[in-house]
């Protein structure tokens, strides 16, 4: 760092983390007097015009998105040889760190987190963007469990994607990208849905469905192997949720939920209907023919009233017959 201030405005406080392209810092906006997060492109990459263009594309893409579950971009700038993006500061941690520290999350918490992620990515899909790099590292969670998705660095505009295109260089994380991304085929919103399925699987199982030795092995697993049933690692997973996850991780994009919005709506419906996990199996009573059931008490007043009604009706029948026979028009007259 040549100086701790960027653009004569943002005071660098401390480093928060690093990625393949950039470092992220906690900073202070001296003009608006608020904490912000600043993402600075690695100095070793500044000379690469393709990467600087990609960095600028991320800033523009994210700046056009405004949603409670997406990190808000405030500013973009260049200070000498440093390119930077200024974003809202999110107090909390990323999902990957939480999983490392806590292991598998509760089923309800996992679903609630994923519903929020799907809401943010669904908004991006409606805005014509595919994230293309969804992973727990890019999902920030505040102390009150609000979710914010970040890092649109390799996002693609739907309008720019050609059905026949093929990429020789595959972007994204091999642990989380979709089969079509692994093969170099063009992504779609369903590609993000697949990545969301992998993340949900990891939250529930405490492990990833595929674990290869290298990127090529992982790519082949995404392309050819079915994910193990989540109930192998989390037996109490409700069957409905297991089926939702299985559909989300389908190899063919057309077999998955089409967008993150649709995926989120399915999870919302599942949660509103109630998870069977909240009812331990030990409390469920099964019918048992050998169990003697207590007999119901006899309702003597009801029986007595019924008997009186019968006597009353029965006594009126002879009287009706006698009156009828007094008249010649009576149908019973011989």
Description:
The chain has 334 residues and is α+β, with helices and mostly antiparallel strands. It has nine helices and eleven strands. Helix 3 runs antiparallel to helix 5. The radius of gyration is 33 Å and the shape is globular. The chain starts with a strand and ends in a 9-residue tail after the last helix. About 6% of the residues have low confidence.
How would you summarize the topology of this molecule?
Layout: E1 5-6, E2 10-18, E3 22-29, E4 34-41, H1 49-63, E5 73-79, E6 82-88, E7 92-94, H2 95-102, H3 107-126, E8 129-130, E9 139-142, E10 147-149, E11 156-157, H4 179-182, H5 189-205, H6 215-224, H7 239-248, H8 260-272, H9 300-325
Antiparallel strand pairs: 1-2, 2-3, 3-4, 4-6, 5-6, 7-9, 8-11, 9-10
Helix pairs in contact: 3-5, 3-8, 7-8
Q: What are the key terms here?
A:
334 residues, alpha+beta, 2 domains, 9 helices, Phosphorylase Kinase, domain 1, Transferase(Phosphotransferase), domain 1, 6-stranded antiparallel sheet
Short description:
The protein is an alpha+beta fold and 334 residues long. It has helices at residues 49-63, 95-102, 107-126, 179-182, 189-205, 215-224, 239-248, 260-272, 300-325, and strands at 5-6, 10-18, 22-29, 34-41, 73-79, 82-88, 92-94, 129-130, 139-142, 147-149, 156-157.
């Amino acid at each position: 760092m040549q100086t701790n201030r960027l653009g004569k405005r943002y005071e660098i406080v401390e480093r928060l983390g690093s990625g393949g392209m950039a470092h992220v810092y906690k900073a202070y906006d001296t003009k608006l007097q608020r904490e912000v997060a600043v993402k600075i492109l690695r100095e070793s990459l500044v000379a690469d015009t393709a990467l600087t263009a990609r960095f600028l594309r991320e800033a523009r893409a994210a700046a056009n998105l405004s949603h409670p579950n997406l990190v808000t971009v405030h500013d973009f700038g260049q200070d000498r040889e440093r390119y930077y993006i200024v974003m809202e500061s999110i107090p909390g941690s990323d999902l990957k760190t939480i999983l490392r520290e806590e292991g598998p999350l509760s089923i309800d918490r996992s679903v609630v987190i994923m519903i929020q992620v799907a809401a943010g990515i669904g908004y991006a899909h409606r805005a014509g963007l595919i994230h293309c790099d969804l992973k727990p590292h890019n999902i920030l969670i505040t102390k009150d469990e609000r979710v914010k998705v970040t890092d649109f660095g390799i996002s693609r505009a739907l309008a720019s994607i050609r059905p026949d295109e093929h990429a020789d260089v595959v972007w994204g994380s091999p642990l989380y990208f979709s089969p079509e991304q692994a093969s170099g085929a063009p992504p779609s919103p369903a590609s993000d849905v697949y990545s969301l399925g992998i993340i949900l699987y990891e939250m529930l199982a405490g492990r990833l469905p595929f674990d290869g030795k290298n990127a090529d092995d992982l790519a082949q697993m995404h392309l050819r192997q079915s994910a193990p049933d989540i109930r192998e690692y989390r037996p109490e997973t409700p069957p409905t949720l297991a089926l939702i996850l299985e559909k989300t991780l389908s190899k063919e994009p057309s077999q998955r939920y089409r967008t993150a919005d649709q995926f989120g709506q399915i999870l919302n419906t599942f949660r509103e209907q109630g998870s069977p996990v909240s009812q331990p199996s030990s409390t469920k009573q099964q019918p048992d023919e050998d169990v003697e059931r207590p007999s119901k008490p006899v309702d003597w007043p009801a029986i007595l009233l019924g008997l009186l009604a019968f006597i009353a009706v029965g006594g009126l029948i002879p009287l009706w017959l006698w009156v009828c026979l007094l008249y010649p028009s009576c149908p019973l007259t011989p």
